[in-house]
Write a structure and sequence with these properties.
With 501 residues, the chain is mostly beta strands. The longest helix has 9 residues. The protein contains 7 helices and 34 strands. The protein folds into 4 domains: 176 residues, no CATH class; 106 residues, Beta Barrel (Cathepsin D, subunit A, domain 1); 101 residues, Acid Proteases (Cathepsin D, subunit A, domain 1); 82 residues, PDZ domain (Pdz3 Domain).
Length: 501
């Protein structure tokens, strides 16, 4: 699904605010823009089985029902039936984008003491795997949003207890047609693997070598072929070997008899190898920074993979042509290397200013962008790192010499805030830490993903606008004192914010 310019200006999945308290019968708001499919589903080849008193909603197009299929009639499932196709699908997961993540009112009995706020940083939520999110108890089609709204726990008859998720009609059509490419949709797809960004080593993914041992490997499109560190070869007892063949498993994908060069792979003595151009030659490599998932895709890119950006990519890092507007208004084109080992957004050699007025890549324009001075790869005018890439889902298409970019949840977040390494998320009830990048100011201060932020410099964050809270974390050379809740215990964290010069 291509995004409109208006939708690019919105914060997406990880920054979830609860919808205003509206009666169910009211028409909710303007049309919604979805940055990803609203459901993960599989087509059924057998007729479903219905138990007693199943949830049931239908209109002239679809019927939604809580049933089961296969041989085990006791296993609940959320199913949808297309009257036009006369076919069923099993809705396995629903997207949290634009969802309302409610919680049981205080004082309710333990049997309904659920809290869906924990899904705030999860792109897709499994349905019917537990009594917590088992089955919707009411539904409606909302024409203004071209989507169905499914409500959970509405039987409590209190708006604060209501959770709701959206199913876009376009996604339902795609699910029945089988058009969705699972590797681009489901974070748990076996062709994908989780990755993390680290200040020292860049993009890190778990790779299993043929001995069965899992090691941390770096993903680097500038590395020729695949490089393995001698630490991963110790089981062979080889000395001074320059090249070898290994079986490498990434997620559910195994590269059998992979030719690898042997050499030093780590900056921090803790990396088993580098996945370089050999991986990018074989697959489309998609990095979903929101979900922290690496997807390996056979063949051509899916139609919703994003806006294509031309790259020159032969030996070394891929290079894009960008337009830079300096602080004094001078406009020039620049060749920028894509470096996934760089944590900053933009690095220029001998940068004389702390910011550029604008950076434009394709149709994407970033204003007032911090710039750092540093060494730059030969043949490039500057570097683009994870500080900018993490605002997108980035698909590397080496075969067609292009990148495919889709804006993500951090697309519009101020860069000053982002440089702390702290991703702040909210669900209308609480403000929490979604992720912390290793080696950054937030990591060194002791903040951890899952921490709830209660106060900043003695001021409660309850009711504070997320944009205002983020502005309070922009770099200005001062220290912030954060009061946090970590697993029910209160802590004080001192977060130094360096001055951006």
């Amino acid at each position: 699904m291509r995004l409109t310019p208006q939708s690019r200006g919105r914060a997406y999945s990880l920054v979830l605010s609860l919808l205003p308290a509206l009666a169910f019968a009211q028409t909710p708001g303007p049309p919604l823009d979805f940055s990803r499919p609203t459901l993960v589903a599989t087509q059924l080849t057998t007729d479903p089985v219905f138990g007693p008193r199943p949830f049931n909603f239908e209109d002239e197009h679809y019927r939604f029902v809580r049933g089961s299929y296969g041989t085990d009639s006791r296993t609940p499932a959320l199913l949808a039936y297309s009257k036009r196709r006369r076919a069923w699908i099993h809705i396995m997961k629903v997207s949290t984008e634009h969802a309302r993540l409610g919680h049981a009112p205080d004082g309710m009995v333990l049997s309904v003491g659920w809290d869906h706020g924990r899904f705030i940083n999860v792109p897709f939520v499994p349905v019917a795997e537990s009594v917590d999110l088992n089955s919707p108890d009411r539904a409606a089609y909302v024409p203004a949003r071209s989507a169905y709204r499914l409500d959970f726990h509405s039987r409590l008859n209190e708006d604060v207890a209501l959770s709701s998720f959206w199913l876009a009609t376009a996604d339902l059509e795609a699910a029945f047609d089988g058009r969705r490419t699972p590797a681009m949709v489901d974070p748990d797809d076996p062709r994908s693997a989780g990755f993390r960004t680290e200040a020292d080593d860049g993009l890190i993914v778990g790779v299993r070598v043929e001995t069965g041992e899992w090691l941390r490997w770096r993903i680097d499109p500038a590395q020729a072929g695949v490089l393995v560190d001698p630490v991963a070869m110790r089981h062979r007892g080889a000395v001074d070997v320059k090249e070898a063949r290994l079986a490498l498993t990434i997620g559910g994908t195994t590269l059998s008899d992979q030719v690898v060069a042997v050499g030093r792979a780590s900056r921090s003595n803790n990396v088993g190898g580098i996945l370089g151009t050999a991986l990018f030659d074989r697959f489309l490599v998609s990095l979903d920074y929101d979900a922290r998932r690496l997807h390996l895709i056979d063949g051509d890119a899916a139609s919703d993979a994003g806006e294509p950006i031309a790259v020159q990519w032969r030996s070394g890092a891929p290079v894009v042509t960008a337009r830079i507007t300096s602080a004094d208004g001078l406009v020039r084109d620049a060749r920028l290397c894509i470096e996934t080992t760089e944590s900053k957004a933009l690095v220029l050699p001998s940068a004389s200013a702390s910011r550029v007025a604008a950076l434009q890549i394709g149709s994407f324009r970033f204003a007032d962008l911090p710039v750092f001075s540093g060494s730059v790869t030969a043949g490039c005018d500057g570097l683009i790192g994870n500080g900018l890439l993490r605002r997108f889902r980035v698909t590397f298409d080496r075969r067609h010499q292009q990148l495919l970019l889709t804006p993500g949840s951090l697309f519009d977040v101020p860069y000053d805030y982002d440089l702390t390494g702290l991703a702040v998320v909210a669900n209308g009830r609480a403000v929490g830490v979604g992720s912390v990048e290793q080696g950054t100011a937030a990591d060194k201060a002791g903040l951890r993903a899952g921490d709830l932020i209660l106060e900043i410099d003695g001021t409660p964050v309850a009711g504070m606008e997320l944009a205002g809270l983020r502005r309070s974390l922009r770099l200005d050379g001062r220290e912030r004192v954060l009061s946090i809740d970590r697993l029910g215990s209160r802590h004080v964290i001192r977060l130094p914010l360096p001055e951006l010069k």
